[in-house]
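Lab notes, practical 5.
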Amino acid sequence: MTTTTPLAILVFPDAEVLDVMGPYEAFSLATHDQGTPAFRVRLAAREPIVTLRNGLRVVADDPLDRADTSGILLVPGGPGVRRLVDDLELREWIAARGANAECVLSVCTGAWLLGVAGLLHELPATTHHRTFDDFARHAPTARVQRGVRYVDAGRVLTSGGVSAGIDLALHVIERRLGVAARARVETTMEWGDAWRGG
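Output from the prediction step:
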């Protein structure tokens, strides 16, 4: 029997567009071998309408208190993170929801929020390559990994910036569903060289 895993993406003002939309696209395209959707992807936010970086406005599917984070919780990065690292209410939400999720993912400086929420304690993790020093301050007990696209620490996975979130999503798809499922997504997205000759 195949199941559809709930996947909540936290969105907030000035989140990086591709941090949100790259994984959103990849996970939304992922299917079981029988063709049924593998993930139910939803945007979760405090506000009904959120303006991401560079003015892109998105409509949230769920308020934070009703978001289904039991499967996968994804936290993107972007300039807006700098205003959120001292937000105690959001930090507690990420900590509580992250502790009960099957899997927690971050893209780019979203790792800072996992760090201040206490989810990266003694774990290897990465973030955008220009922000390692800031990351170390927000996640002082994490083992910062440089020069990698993503880090799989088991239940918690982090990626570098922007497009690296797509690589992370594809890795999670392969880990949960297998190589064939990942290949289907890569081919549809024309990601890398998977689409050539198709």
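Observations recorded by the TA: The mean pLDDT is 96. Residues 137 and 184 are 39 Å apart (CA to CA).
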